[in-house]
Amino acid sequence: QVRLVESGGGSVQAGSSLNLSCAASGRTFSTDAMGWFRQAPGQERAFVARIVWNGANTYYADSVKGRFTISRDNAKSTVYLQMNSLKPEDTAVYYCAEDRPPYSGYWSRTDEYDYWGQGTQVTVSS
Description:
Blueprint: E1 4-7, E2 10-13, E3 18-24, E4 33-39, E5 46-51, E6 58-60, E7 68-73, E8 78-83, E9 92-99, E10 115-116, E11 120-125
Parallel strand pairs: 2-11
Antiparallel strand pairs: 1-3, 3-8, 4-5, 4-9, 5-6, 7-8, 9-10, 9-11
């Protein structure tokens, strides 16, 4: 069974915006932390953003602070990533991830997360 499904990717020009969505089917969504990661060809999968179970706290990679916003709607079992002022270096496959307790405390690492989506492609041209 597919637990996480990303959508909203596409090909855009630098300076434009995209809003990614991740629909979750697991029964524990409302009590789990959620994250976004991205991976460019030949690169390691890298942390982008994280949001705690109730949305009270968010965390971002330095490269996206001030441009990206993570949010969630627990009633809809959906997490979002609003991406503004996109740059060519943002080009990557973007993955949604779900983090069940217990937590390691190293939430920017891929091995902290228990479930992953299949990804959605974001391409930014100059």
